[in-house]
Amino acid sequence: MAEELLRVEHLKKSYQSKEVLHDINFAIHKGEVVALLGSSGSGKSTLIRTLNGLEDYQGGTITFAGETVHPSKATWLALRQRIGMVFQSYDLFPNLSVLDNILLGPLKVQHRSRAEAEEDARKLLASVNLADYADRYPRQLSGGQKQRIAIVRALALHPEMMLFDEVTASLDPEMVRGVLDIMTDLAKRDMTMIVVTHEMNFAREVADRVLFLSDGEILEDRQTAEFFAHPATKRAQEFLASMEF
Amino acid sequence: MNWTVITQSLPQFVAGFGITLKLSVIGILGALLVGAIISLVQYFRIPGLRQLATVYIEISRNTPLLVQLFFIFYGLPGLGVKLSATVSGVFGLIFLGGSYMAEAFTGGYNAISKSQIESGRALGLTDLQLARYVVLPQGLTASVPALAANVIFLIKETSIFTVIAIPELTNTALDLIGLYYNSNEYLFELVVAYAIILIPLSLALTWLERRVRYASFGN
After folding, report:
1. Domain harbouring A69, CATH code
2. Which residues of A touch B143 (CB under 8 A)?
3. Domains of chain B by residue range
């Protein structure tokens, strides 16, 4: 088995007095693809955001690459170069060209040379079939193109793990495939990934494991095939029955 | 309407026009500078200065320019600060305009969505980098319409300079009316003079708003 990359132990998160994540425990190994499934409001987005320091947490520990994360601004600033994240709303920066969007992290955060970073960025753009779009602005792009570029922007930092938070949820149906193909490709190239998604077919094809969340608790942590064939809990059975796929 | 009255008073109006224009330009530039600084103090929540900025904004926005001018021109000498009418006028305009400009800038920064900021954070940008590359460039663009409205507003406010006898347009007109009683002609000239400044400027600013939006967000 590959080395462990991420371990979450007894993680708790509350908004004021309301606890929204209860005692979350799981570990992810290098190269593993984990689908985080659950109905809306189950806490999956909150959980994935916690793993990039966008949400604070009130208890438990996160260990990344063997080091316990001491939750502070500085820790997360450094870790975000190693844990990439892509969001539902793509959020390319509209004031920057596609290339400048991609280069912002490598140049300003990682202080890499422009020549090297730009060559890298163009290669990444080519890998998502958008080589000719370097000088365009986000508003000239379709949602699917924006999301592919948002993925490239995160990959440009060469992270060790990628978090995807419902990245196809606001795309037109015909754009979804292109984005999922890129993620499938990443998975094949052994990127460690946590994917919050409602695309059940994608989860079933690509994920090694499924974490099923309900009401802020992990109800199932299973191999993907097992989870889809024999969901153990009633909540998971209901959830799968409610999804069209 | 007597055209001789108008042609005879034209030189005074041209002089007043020049003064209104000059004081407006200086006052607006000063207000933009003060506003930009105050808005950054608030954006970065600089302790101490931030509270001071809030106090300033509340006083500036909630007192009339007339009263502010009286305080600067008639009140400050009592505290040992004696300023000429012109300098008092410009200071007054900057004092008033600074807070309006600050609010316009801040409104622009606040228009940037939380998800934009989060995706910047997710790239590992520091707060300063986030401000410089994401929030401020977009926020400035978003604040242009409000800034433009303030420019027009401040130019119109210069008419209050008449109370401290600065010979700008309104003062010129009121003075002439007092001397010669030709109210119709002088008020007509006054309206035309303001319109000559404000209508083209207003159109130019609308054009600029559109232009800035295209320039910074591509087309």
Report:
1. 3.40.50.300
2. none
3. 3-217
Q: Is A93 close to B122, i.e. CB distance below 8 A?
A: no
Residues of A in contact with B215 (CB under 8 A): none
pLDDT in tens, B38-56: 999 999 999 999 999 999 9
Task: Decide if B62 contacts B55 (C-beta within 8 A).
Answer: no
Sequence-ordered alpha helix ranges (H) in chain B: 3-43, 49-61, 65-70, 85-110, 114-122, 127-130, 136-157, 169-180, 183-217
**Residue A6 DSSP SS3:** strand
Mean pLDDT of A227-242: 94
**Helix extents (H) in A54-142:** 73-79, 98-104, 114-127
Within 8 A of B141 by CB-CB distance, chain A residues are 95
- Return d(Cα B73, Cα B67) in angstroms, integer: 10
Interface mutation target, options B113, B123, B140, B143, chain A, most CBs of A under 10 Å: B123
Structure tokens at A42: 């189950």
Yes or no, beta carbons of B123 and A104 under 8 Å apart: yes
Please judge whether A108 and B133 are an interchain contact, meaning their C-beta atoms are less than 8 angstroms apart.
yes
Please tell me the distance in Å from A114's CA to the nearest CA on chain B: 17
Nearest to B12 by CA among B160, B189, B178, B181: B189
Given the candidates 3.20.20.80, 2.130.10.10, 2.160.10.10, 1.10.3720.10, the CATH classification of the domain at B3-217 is 1.10.3720.10
A18-77 per-position pLDDT tens digit: 999 999 999 999 999 999 999 988 999 999 999 999 999 999 999 999 999 998 999 999
Amino acid letter at A131?
A
Measured at the CA of B214, the angle between CA B212 and CA B217, to 5 degrees, comes to 100
Identify the domain containing residue A57 by its residue range: 4-242
Contacts of A41 (CB under 8 A, 6+ apart): none
**CB pair distance less than 8 Å for A54 and B118:** yes
Q: Which two tokens stand for residue A179?
A: 């984005």
Q: pLDDT-derived band of residue B211, with 50, 70 and 90 as boundaries?
A: confident
Give the integer Cα–Cα distance in Å for B50 and A237. Answer: 54
Beta-carbon separation of B217 and A95 below 8 A: yes
